[in-house]
From TrEMBL:
Species annotation: Thioalkalivibrio denitrificans
Gene3D superfamilies: 3.40.190.290, Winged helix-like DNA-binding domain superfamily/Winged helix DNA-binding domain (1.10.10.10)
Name this protein carries in UniProt: HTH lysR-type domain-containing protein
Domain HTH lysR-type as annotated: residue spans: 4-61
Keyword DNA-binding in annotation: yes
Annotated transmembrane regions: none
PANTHER family: HTH-TYPE TRANSCRIPTIONAL REGULATOR (PTHR30126), HTH-TYPE TRANSCRIPTIONAL REGULATOR GLTR (PTHR30126:SF40)
InterPro entries linked to this entry: LysR_HTH_N, LysR_subst-bd, WH-like_DNA-bd_sf, WH_DNA-bd_sf
């Protein structure tokens, strides 16, 4: 049980600074007997004398001086807290999750912009697979995350942010072809299970009757691409990663079917946990999404396993990408 509260500290501080109960009662608009009773109750609970009483005069004991110092500091902090909250500006710690590809190719400029605008917010960034990030948001370990299709996110809000083009890459010594049957896919270099891009390529290969003999699971794109450059196997990566790492001349890029190559990165969050800092981050994401010429859209709830986002095809038709890797619907 707490032995002090702010109301009692206010009474104690008033008596200490005013020099007596009568003067303090006028400042606080309380009757003197109430103040005297509250002071005695404080001393009894704390087990120390706060005032020396002599000839109807009060003076602070050493313990009273110590408590007065703490009281003044506490009231200063309370004032600062009330002022900060009344100003309604983003503050505190904001924990954001991201795919590694997005963190490396998309986020640096956005994070720089955000931290310069909102100096009272401490940003914490963690990277993981789509499945891991959605679990972290659902469990309130982070406030929001950038994830890729396909994903399953019941009770989370989601907004489309970036459109990524996925490509299959192999070593530079490979044949420049887009026919999957002509590419050695016996070794697939990828992130661990839970990666949405891995689901895409596994579904594609399975539909083509191709089963990789081995999987090399790594935790970063530089490691994955390093293995591809060395000729270890093939990998599926966003084209933005290839561009950001400057490796166009070191790998062969093979196009995926259009219904698989276009993938929308979404920002997901728990709508009931929206803070000012989170709202400011989402707003900035959407501003940069427009600047990047990517697909944007209204916020919506994901309560099914299929996440679809419309976008314009090269021919001007509207396509809907099916996360299961099937042919797109045209409408």
């Amino acid at each position: 049980m707490r032995k002090l509260n702010l109301d009692e500290l206010e009474i104690f501080q008033a008596v200490a600074t005013a020099g007596g109960v009568t003067a303090a009662s006028k400042l606080l608009h309380r009757v003197p007997s109430n103040i005297t009773t509250r002071l005695k109750q404080m001393e009894e609970r704390l087990g120390v004398r706060l005032f020396n009483r002599c000839d109807n005069r009060l003076s602070l004991t050493p313990e009273g001086n110590l408590l007065l110092n703490y009281a003044e500091r506490l009231f200063q902090l309370v004032g600062e807290a009330e002022l900060s909250l009344s100003e309604r500006r983003p503050m505190g710690t904001l924990r954001i999750g991201s795919l590694e590809s997005t963190a490396g190719a998309r986020l640096p400029t956005i994070l720089s912009d955000y931290t310069s605008r909102h100096t009272d917010v401490q940003l914490e960034i963690r990277t993981d697979t789509t499945a891991g990030l959605i679990e972290a948001v659902s469990n309130c370990e982070i406030e929001g995350a950038l994830v890729s299709q396909p994903f399953w996110a019941p009770r989370l809000s989601a907004a489309p942010i970036f459109r990524e083009e996925l490509v299959l890459i192999s070593g530079s010594q490979s044949k420049p072809t887009n026919r999957i049957q002509d590419i050695d896919c016996s070794t697939l270099i990828c992130f661990p299970q839970g990666c949405s891009y891995r689901k895409v390529v596994e579904g594609w290969l399975s539909a083509e009757g191709i089963t990789p003999i081995r999987f090399v699971e790594l935790a970063s794109y530089p490691s994955i691409i390093g293995c591809v450059v060395a000729g270890t196997g093939v990998a599926i990566v966003p084209l933005s990663v290839v561009d950001s790492l400057g490796i166009r001349d070191e790998v062969q890029r093979h196009r995926l079917p259009i219904e698989l190559s276009r993938n929308i990165t979404h920002f997901v969050w728990r709508p009931e946990r929206e803070s000012l800092a989170l709202r400011a981050f989402l707003s900035l994401l959407q501003q940069h999404a427009t600047d990047l010429g990517t697909v944007t859209g209204t916020m919506f709830q994901h309560d099914s396993a299929v996440a679809t986002v419309p976008f314009e095809s090269d021919a001007g038709e509207t396509e809907t990408m099916a996360p299961n890797g099937r042919s797109p619907r045209r409408h």
